[in-house]
Design goal:
Elements lengths: L1 H11 L8 E11 L8 E5 L4 E3 L7 H14 L3 E6 L16 E9 L8 H10 L5 E10 L10 E4 L11 H17 L3 E6 L5 E9 L4 E5 L5 H11 L2 E5 L7 H6 L2 E3 L13 E5 L4 H12 L5 E4 L3 H13 L6 H6 E2 L11 H16 L18
Parallel strand pairs: 10-11, 10-13, 11-12, 13-14, 14-15
Antiparallel strand pairs: 1-2, 1-5, 2-3, 4-5, 6-7, 6-9, 8-9
Helix pairs in contact: 1-3, 5-10
Amino acid sequence: MKEIKAIIKACDMIEKTNTHAALATVVRVEGSSYRSTGARMLVMDNGRWVGGISGGCLEGDALKRARIAMAKSISTLITYDTTEGDAYQIGVGLGCNGVIDVLFTPLNFSDKNNPVEILKSCVAASRQTHVLITITRLEGNWMNLMTGQTIKYTSPESLGFFGNDWLAEQCINTVNRQLAENKSAPQNFLLEDGRKIETFIEILPPEINLVIMGYQYDVYPLSRLVKEIGWRVTIVASPQKLNATIIAIADEVIEPESFTNLPVDEHTVIILMSHDYKTDKYNLPKALATAAPYIGMLGPRVRSEKIWRELEEEGIPISAENLNRIHAPIGLDIGAVTPEEIALSLAAEVRASLSKRNGGFLRLRTASIHER
């Protein structure tokens, strides 16, 4: 989401009367790649660009391809194959060893349904998961459809533009499956009359919202780190107890008594880090009453277990299901010592947990790094 916001900001600042731009989007990856599907890069005809589609091995050629798309005003799908041993092949020097499809779409600033405007509408909307369907290639006569066209799927009625009930039904089934898996992927559909349409169906969740229940000095390095990552930061504490620098970093600061009014979804993480035993004990049942899939508790294991025992003795037992949501002690075992290193440990475990990964060494992983 951070990259998308940067692209939107850059696009808004373009002098649109005499500047052209194109959006490059990774729509398919096979094998190894630095970036996964959904990576984007905004390219302007003055040579400036924002975002990225690789680790640097494709960007140079992408600038040329984007300018061609601008000049022709036609979207183009380019395949970069870095699996071959050709010394002149783009990306071979970095050993990418993958096949990457990138869609280059020239932006029509007068079209309120151009890809960047659609992304802007997703970012501006309330916290929800959006589904974007982009046409990446067409074979046969498709009347009013064109490569590069993007729609925001909100209901089955959104697919009326296909003009084909069978295709709409197949696409709906695919969207529902990808939503269940929370996974973006390319999808191709072949009609009985021989026409073919290739699409990229993107699942675009809201940014992670890190809710910090505490106000001590270690809130600052954690907030600063996750904002750099691109997450949202909400601090639950009295503003009078917070450093002005932390208030400036946070997206929102709410009073503890207003916590129950905070919208919490499956992309919300709650961390109890007040450094006060009674406060964390009081906050834990409140955190468990939300839909947050991840609740972290700072401090040693014996401290957390003591809180659980006391709550049970007071008639507030914690179910096995809720215990699975609690991470105590929070963080990955990286030998963190300083507040900044501890913040890194916490953020890394949060990302691993939400991605359903174990946070181990990548050199020991047998599957691909990015799920296909």
